[in-house]
Amino acid sequence: MERLRAALAQGRFVAYQPTSLKVIDGHVTPADPESIRADLEVLRPKFDGLITYDATHGTESIAAIAAQLKFRALIIGVWSPADEVELAAAIAAARRFPQLVLGVSLGNELLLAGRSDPVALERMIGAVRARLPTMPLATTEPFHIYYRPELSPLLGQLDFLLVNVHPVFQPWFRDAPGTTAARFVVNVLAELAPRACGPILVKETGVPTAPESQGFTEARQASFYAQLRRQLPATAARAFAYFAAFDAPWRAYDALAVPGAAPGAHPEEAHWGLYDAERRPKRAARELASLPRY
Hints:
The chain is of the alpha/beta class. It has a single domain, classed as Glycosidases (TIM Barrel, Alpha-Beta Barrel), CATH 3.20.20. The protein is 32% helix and 15% strand. It is built from 9 helices and 10 strands. The chain has helices spanning 2-10, 33-43, 62-68, 84-96, 118-131, 152-157, 178-192, 218-231, 283-286, and strands at residues 13-15, 22-24, 27-29, 49-51, 73-78, 101-108, 137-142, 161-164, 200-204, 238-240. Strands 1-4-5-6-7-8-9-10 form an 8-stranded parallel beta sheet, sandwiched between helices. The chain has a two-stranded antiparallel ribbon with strand order 2-3. The protein is globular and about 50 Å long. The mean pLDDT is 95.
């Protein structure tokens, strides 16, 4: 936990899915190592920490490439922790790269999507802890899920809290200034702190850059992050990741992007990136200072 806390306080995380990985009509196009390397070479000057979502479908090569490029922290996401093949891949990467892998996230919005329940997640946490006894473990849900009283036993088993906090989904967001959206994230963390078992890392928060007709622009994304840096400076107890590394055009037609939504109903899902799908930096990325080694 000491190394994880240091990474939160001193590093800069970004939520990363490979640009070559796509999910269309349930069919997965796996990521390829060459594309992953190109992605990470673009990200490394501005970021030294990665949070992933999947441990298979070509993402098995992320840890090795990240280590070669001198990333300092990797939190491995396991999309389906009940899938032994994926779970084994994540465990293998954590064991192979102990200086890089600082945490494992068992699932992303499993409770929100109804893909699991608190009791099953508690059992999963215990089973994985037996296999990785020194690895910090977490799961990821939208902030309001963690408010449920019945989640207290689960929260007590987690080593740190990964949380998704999206001001854009609040009814007041459309006309709100950047200061209000950033303050919302800060207020959510203050509410979660008494419930959390350890440090809190906001895994997803941000503003899409399109469609402009819905109030989403590069300028608004950059303004939000500038405000969030001012209002939520990183510490060993609280920090945020940038979401996401790259645009993913396929997500506009992925029903899982917004559980329960019809494909195509949320075009903004394609535009969360700080870089576009061709790896070109948007304003928010350009405004970030390069990290010291660069």
